[in-house]
């Protein structure tokens, strides 16, 4: 599938369950049109990873995921040789006396174990969506290793030479900004800062993901989360809830047969919204009551 316009991107993502605003839909459209990687930065839980999943569905392309972490090695991202199979081949060649060029024989594609980067380059039409998730958790040498792939959609394997993409993969990189990424990585990507959604978009997401929740409860969830993220309440918490927490909270409230929010149920379920001990402890019934007040009530 090819998107012909920004509106088509937004519609396609929405049909896949992802509600993108105009700026994000524009960034995705340009990444597809220009065949450039898209770097998404933002707080945890704002929907960076989910965008790649939805894009895979919308484009009807296979999703390949490379989860980054400290100490990630090239062989885990690109390829490694099947040493056991190579050894068996060498022994068989020696036993048969046909070992004249055995070294070149064992470095054949059939002995290659392909990891996400190489899989993405060799995926046939229509190609793959490659998610390089939380790239900020990897170290700087790994960023340098990515440059050839990001800039030219190719990689170099010493034993085989340069491998270029059959179909340029749609590449999404995500970062929670635990550290600043190298400028060389950023220059090879289109960039988009993904912020928390506005109320109406979050309301649409919760409605779509938790259709069994009542309209009143859904609106209360969106209003409550919006107030938690805004002044003066945001300063009371180490980390505001993301979209994933909003959806999970709505599901939990439905499981509890809650029709509307009240301070008691907010306190009882605070561990679903917040993942820090101090944040959970900060949710008292008094604070919950304040957060549940309509905005005009506090004016």
UniProtKB/TrEMBL annotation:
Record-level Gene Ontology MF annotations: ATP binding; ATP hydrolysis activity
Protein's UniProt name: MoxR family ATPase
SUPFAM superfamilies: P-loop containing nucleoside triphosphate hydrolases
SMART domains tied to this protein: AAA (SM00382)
Organism: Variovorax guangxiensis
AAA+ ATPase domain mapped to chain residues: 34-195
């Amino acid at each position: 599938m090819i998107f012909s316009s920004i509106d088509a991107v937004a519609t396609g993502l929405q049909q896949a369950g992802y509600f993108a605003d105009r700026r994000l839909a524009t960034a995705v459209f340009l990444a597809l049109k220009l065949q450039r990687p898209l770097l998404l930065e933002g707080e945890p839980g704002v929907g960076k990873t989910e965008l790649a999943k939805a894009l895979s569905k919308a484009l009807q392309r296979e999703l390949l995921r490379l989860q980054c972490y400290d100490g990630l090695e090239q062989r885990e991202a690109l390829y490694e040789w099947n040493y056991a199979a190579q050894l068996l081949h060498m022994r068989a060649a020696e036993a048969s006396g046909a070992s004249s060029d055995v070294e070149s024989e064992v470095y054949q594609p059939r002995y290659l174990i392909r990891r996400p980067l190489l899989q993405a380059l060799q995926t046939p039409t229509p190609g793959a969506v490659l998610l390089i998730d939380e790239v900020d958790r990897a170290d700087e040498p790994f960023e340098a290793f990515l440059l050839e792939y990001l800039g030219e959609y190719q990689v170099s394997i010493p034993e085989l030479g340069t491998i270029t993409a059959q179909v340029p993969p749609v590449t999404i990189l995500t970062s929670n900004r635990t550290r600043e990424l190298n400028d060389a990585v950023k220059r090879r990507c289109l960039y988009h800062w993904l912020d928390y959604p506005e109320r109406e978009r979050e309301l649409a997401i919760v409605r779509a993901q938790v259709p069994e929740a009542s309209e009143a409860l859904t609106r209360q969830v969106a209003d409550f989360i919006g107030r938690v993220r805004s002044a003066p309440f945001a300063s009371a918490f180490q980390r505001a809830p993301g979209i994933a927490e909003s959806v999970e909270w709505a599901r939990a409230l439905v499981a509890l047969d809650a029709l509307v929010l009240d301070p008691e149920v907010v306190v009882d379920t605070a561990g679903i919204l917040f993942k820090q001990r101090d944040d959970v402890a900060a949710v008292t019934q008094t604070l919950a009551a304040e957060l549940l007040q309509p905005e005009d009530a506090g004016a």
